[in-house]
Design brief:
EC number: 4.3.3.7
Catalytic activity: L-aspartate 4-semialdehyde + pyruvate = (2S,4S)-4-hydroxy-2,3,4,5-tetrahydrodipicolinate + H2O + H(+)
Strand order of the largest sheet: 1-2-3-4-5-6-7-8
CATH superfamily: Aldolase class I
Keywords: Amino-acid biosynthesis, Cytoplasm, Diaminopimelate biosynthesis, Lyase, Lysine biosynthesis, Schiff base
Helix content: 40-55%
Number of strands: 8
Radius of gyration: 18 Å
Shape: globular
CATH topology: TIM Barrel
Structural class: alpha/beta
Pathway: Amino-acid biosynthesis; L-lysine biosynthesis via DAP pathway; (S)-tetrahydrodipicolinate from L-aspartate: step 3/4
CATH architecture: Alpha-Beta Barrel
Largest sheet: 8 strands, parallel, barrel
Enzyme class: lyase
CATH class: Alpha Beta
Length: about 300
């Protein structure tokens, strides 16, 4: 199939990969999650991804993942979509998490390729199909080989597109050519998972983005998409460039996005709390640099 239109947006256009707030003692902070989710929705997010990479999914329990979905659903109602991260290295466990997320009130599932075991592409494809068969929820294939060690190859994605519940891709492959190949061959909704590629992927037909930076500036990339849709491509490009200091500080400074997002949220007195080990909190100098980048990006946005 060759498609010449923008891919559909089954979960909205502007999604935030939300941090999972913890209390200072390290417990799950459900009230903080409710408040943060409400702020993100008010700032323009029309979807939230819970328990993804930024949500520290490897260090939250199955019960915590389900409780988080339930709490955020209570806070935002039906105003936005909720996509629950359920990916693990174990197909059976992933299916269990998918069913729990569906019961808790999620609208969709975010599923990574199984990590560590590095299965071949036929096994990767079978993994996604088994998860999609098990639940009634639509599924987002999360292609992030830098963390899983396994790429979901374009040909595999093209085959998976024939499954009625495999509807989208969160792309962190850093392979723009491969992404365009899938966009041209399928109706899968593509979401930029790397903040620096939001406009680039949207310009070639992606549905939107799943952003870590949106935890602190939810309106920023929404403005990029709105400008592009209004035909003001110059303003869209300028806004994307104005976001660069914050993107670099949060995503390219050698620390995971969960660490930098929580450091900046905490400095802004917003719900976040500590990260869980093995991650460690950002130091004072890093946090100060994040604040400077945040202020520069916010000021730049106002000047456009």
């Amino acid at each position: 199939m060759t498609t010449d239109h923008r891919s559909p947006a089954p979960f909205g256009r502007a999604l935030c990969a939300m941090v999972t707030p913890f209390t200072e003692s390290g417990a799950l902070d459900l009230e903080g999650a409710r408040r943060l989710a409400g702020r993100l929705v008010s700032g323009g997010c029309d979807g939230l991804v819970l328990s993804g990479t930024t949500g520290e999914s490897p260090t939250t329990t199955d019960a915590e993942k389900a409780a988080l979905v339930t709490a955020v659903r209570e806070a935002v109602g039906d105003r936005v979509t909720l996509v629950a991260g359920v990916g693990t290295a174990d197909t059976r466990h992933t299916v269990e998490l998918a069913l729990a997320a569906e019961k808790a009130g999620a609208d969709g599932l975010l599923v990574i390729a199984p990590y560590y075991s590095r299965p071949p592409q036929d096994a990767v494809e079978a993994h996604f199909r088994e998860v999609a068969d098990a639940s009634g929820l639509p599924l987002v294939v999360y292609d992030i080989p830098g963390r899983t060690g396994t790429r979901v190859e374009p040909d595999t994605l093209a085959r998976l597109a024939d499954h009625p519940r495999i509807v989208a891709v969160k792309d962190c492959s850093y392979n723009l050519l491969g992404a365009q190949r899938v966009l041209s061959r399928t109706d899968l909704a593509y979401y930029a998972g790397c903040d620096e590629q939001v406009l680039a992927l949207y310009a070639v037909g992606a549905a939107g983005y799943v952003s870590t930076v949106a935890n602190v500036v939810p309106e920023l990339f929404r403005a990029v998409l709105d400008s592009f849709d209004a035909g003001d491509t110059g303003r869209a490009a300028l806004l994307q460039r104005r976001a660069l200091p914050l993107i670099e500080a949060m995503m390219a400074a050698g620390l995971p996005g969960a660490v930098t997002a929580k450091a900046l949220l905490g400095a802004l007195d917003l719900p976040a709390g500590p990260v869980r080990a093995p991650l460690r909190a950002a130091d004072r100098a890093t946090t100060d640099a994040l604040l400077t980048a945040y202020e520069e990006s916010a000021a730049g946005q106002l000047q456009v």
